[in-house]
Fold each of these.
Amino acid sequence: MKAIFPGSFDPITNGHLDVLEQASAIFDEVVVVIATNTNKKSLFAPSEKKRLAEEATAHLPKVKVVLAPNSLTVQVAKKLGAQAIVRGLRNSQDMVYEQDMAFINHEMAPDLETVFFMTTARYAHLSSTMVRESAQLGGDVSSLVPECVQKALHAKFSAKLGDRK
Ligand code: ADP
């Protein structure tokens, strides 16, 4: 069975990887679908997000990464021949939002199931936003993101931090 894991991934974090590791144990193939039509302002360009996601998931042979410009999640799933949408849950706030999304997607594509994975407790407070903000202020994010992302964040922000000194 094939699943997609859609999201912004700006950037991919250890929380996303935790969900992907859990999903890999159940599905035959999991495609990380990087949405590029999001209203959220992005730090990383789509091509950078894709490269980082590919590098971070190199140890997971069932995981592939694609970019999805201006597409509905259900349409991407159909195009890729996936039967399930994977989403991660951190807390009850995620649950409320994700439930609405799952209902809407089910209305549009009744044969597509949304499957939720609870995050490991230590990643329950982790978000890409928190990582971007910490890294921008020079914080240590090494326990929150894969090494390639840590390097990419450092490259993005070190020039700016240098300017402030
Ligand atoms: P989106 O803009 O779709 O929320 P994100 O990249 O922020 O994109 O998240 C993609 C998916 O990964 C969502 O289902 C989100 O709940 C989940 N996710 C994000 N961070 C974590 C985490 N720390 N633990 C588990 N799931 C997470």
Amino acid sequence: MANIAVFASGRGTNLQAIIKAVKKGKIKANLALVVSDVKKAMALKRAKRAGIKQIFIDPAAYPTQGTFEQEILKHLEAEKIDLIVLAGFMRIVGKTLLDRFPDKILNIHPALLPSFKGVRGIQEAFEYGAKITGVTVHFVDAKMDHGPTILQGVVKIEDADTLESLEKKIHRLEHKLYPEAVRLVTEGRVKIDGRKVIRLL
Ligand code: GRF
């Protein structure tokens, strides 16, 4: 069974959805570690409540991204982590982690990539006046919100939607899509072929 580490900086609702899917046996993996770069992240509390090992690593304590990631790597190696799941981790993953976990890092983005990259994906789609937006789960590579797409789901933006109602719809979809993507990857049901992620039966 794969050992998973979830990286989160904030509320951790996606972490919670993954915890639930593991508990229900939908994802057959061991949630071994939750890593946060924010001491007070709600995600750490959720991990604690679920009995998952959690650590806060303070980026301000390290002179460079590389040394910060070396510290994270130590913990990942101690737990024999096979897969990293970014769930609201508000940092770019650097070379240290990418080299050690090639095609083994997932991310979720609250828009249909390549549209509306960056940290304000929901708001920017709304303000742009898009009629559809959605959620993307993808492998992580060196560029932000860029690696091969595993799953996407569509959310309609109706005239009656507010930013808040749209956020709710997006998060509801995220909580379905992310556990499903983690399941596919941990069961070895996807293969990367260039930009494409091919489903294996
Ligand atoms: C999600 O909207 C995710 O798409 C984005 O950050 C948010 C994290 O939310 N990358 P949560 O911490 O899982 O509630």
